[in-house]
Structure formats: structure tokens, C-alpha cells
TrEMBL record:
It is a multi-pass membrane protein. This is Large-conductance mechanosensitive channel. The lineage of its organism: Bacteria, Pseudomonadati, Pseudomonadota, Gammaproteobacteria, Pseudomonadales. PROSITE patterns: MSCL. One of its GO terms (molecular function) is mechanosensitive monoatomic ion channel activity. Belongs to the MscL family.
Length: 134
């Protein structure tokens, strides 16, 4: 088997294609979640904590000199990123929890017995009644 045919067999396998689709959808979903956190969740949180924007917090290690930019440790961006992560993780947790609840509700509903099962139940009941009669 040639290298090209082996690669073709690998590339068109279901798992590889499924994984690629998952990565593409995940990247698109990531943009939605980022927008949700940045545009919907963070403004009220910022309002609650007094309008503090963590991303502006920084320590200047070395001032700008001529054309050389200042050396800044932007720890506020790190705090903001960690806060964003916690909010995203919690939102995903709630989403997965809701999905699992729906799955459990579907699984709890028992399937109706088939005709064969009903007939077997009737036969079992008839046999029990015959054994109980003297």
C-alpha cells in the first residue's frame, strides 16, 4: 500500500472528519461564548464591583525611553482572563447540567412492551393461575 493511499484512508476515516467538524464548530462556539462573556456578562459584573476594569491594572517596570516602549507587567489582563475563564466554565457547566437533565428524562421513560413481551406476560400469568388452582 503506497504512502498516498494510506494517507487517503486515514484522512477520510469517520473519526478524523468528525474531529475536524468538532474543532470547527468548537472554534465558532468559542467566539459566541467570548462575546457572551465580554458583552453580556462582564458589564453587569463590572457595574456591581464599581466599574473596575481589571485589564487596565499594570505595573510599569521600566518607563519608555525615546522610541523604546515601556516595559509593563499587565497583571490586570491576567486577572480579567482568569475571571472570564471562571464565568465561561460555570456557563458551560450549567449548559451541560441542563443537557444531562434532558437526557435523563428521556432515559427514564420506559419503552412500551412489544407484542411478544405482552404475549409472554399473558402466558406467564396463565401458568401461575394454573399452578395455584388445586
Amino acid at each position: 500500500m503506497s504512502l498516498l493511499s494510506e494517507f487517503k484512508a486515514f484522512a477520510v476515516k469517520g473519526n478524523v472528519v468528525d474531529m475536524a467538524v468538532g474543532i470547527i464548530i468548537g472554534a465558532a462556539f468559542g467566539k459566541i461564548v467570548t462575546s457572551f462573556v465580554g458583552d453580556v456578562i462582564m458589564p453587569p459584573i463590572g457595574l456591581l464591583i464599581g466599574g473596575v476594569d481589571f485589564s487596565d491594572l499594570a505595573i510599569t517596570l521600566k518607563a519608555a525611553e525615546g522610541k523604546a516602549p515601556a516595559v509593563v507587567m499587565a497583571y490586570g489582563k491576567f486577572i480579567q482572563t482568569c475571571l472570564d475563564f471562571l464565568i465561561v466554565a460555570f456557563a458551560i457547566f450549567l449548559g451541560i447540567k441542563a443537557i444531562n437533565r434532558f437526557k435523563r428524562e428521556e432515559a427514564v421513560a420506559p419503552a412500551a412492551p412489544t407484542k411478544e413481551q405482552e404475549l409472554l406476560s399473558e402466558i406467564r400469568d396463565l401458568l401461575k393461575n394454573q399452578q395455584n388452582k388445586p
